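Input/output pair, single chain:
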Amino acid sequence: MITYNPELIKVPAFLTKFIDLEELSVIKKINLIIKGKIIAYSLRNLSELGICRVLNWILKFEGEITYEDKLYVKNYNGSKIYYPNIRFTRILIHQEEFLNHLFDSYLLDNISFKDGDYIVDCGSNVGELSLAFEQKGFKVDYLGIEPEPNAYKCLEKNTNSSNLNICLSNHESRIPFYVDSVGANSSAIRPDTSNSTIDITAKRLDQITDSKKIKLLKIDAEGAEPEVLLGCKGVIQNIEYISVDCGAERGQGQETTFVEVIKIMSKYDFEIVDINQRRLITLFKNKK
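Output:
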C-alpha cells in the first residue's frame, strides 16, 4: 500500500474544502497545486491590495474581492461582505457551501425555525451565522455579540440588526481581552498566543435581555463558554435551544469545556439533542 504525504502539497485549505480531490483529473490537480502555491505566497508576502489583485486574477468566482477602509470586502451580486483579515477566504469561492456548513456545524438543522425567531449569537465574529440564516430564507430577529473591535466593525456592516460590542461572562466588570487579529481565536481566557490585549466591558446575558423568548443562543467563546452560561441564569427559562462550541480552546492548555458545560446545562434542566463529534459542538434543548 502506498502512503501519501499531504504536507508536501500545502495549499490553502479553502481551495480544497468543498471539492472531492479524488474526482479531479491529473491536470486539474496540478493546476490546483500551482494556484495554491501562488495564493499561499501572496497571502504571506503581499500587501492587502496585492492579495486582492492576485485572488481576483487567479481564481474564478462570482464577484470580486477589494480592500476598503482597512477591511477586506467581497462584492457579490450587488451586496458586500466585510472581514478584518484573511478569513474572508472562507466565503471567497464556496460561499453558499460554507454558510450551509456553518449552519450544520452548530447542529441547527435539528431546530424548526420560523420568521421572527429571536437568535442571540455570542461570539458572532463578523456575523456569518446571520448570513447563513439569510441564505436559508429565515428572517430572524438577530443579536450579534462580539468583543473584538475589528470583527465587530464588520458585524455592524454585515447585519441589519442591533449588535453589542461587549464580552459575555458571569459578572459585570472591565476585563482584559486577548486579541487574535489574524484568525478568530480572541478570548477572555488567556490563550497560548495572542497579538495584543485590550480592556473590554463584560456583562451577563441576563443583564442585557428582558423576558423576550430566545429561540436559539449560540455560544462560541473560545474557551469561556462556562462563564457565559453561568451569566444566563436569570433568563435561562426563556431560552429554548443552546448550541455550545465546547472544543479544545480554553486557555494556554487548550482544554475542552465539554464536561463543565454538560454539568451546567444539566443543572439548568437542558437535555442533549445532538453532538458534532469533530468540533465538540453540543446542541441542548430546554426540557421545560
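Residues 240 and 258 are 20 Å apart (CA to CA). The first strand starts at residue 64 and ends at 68.
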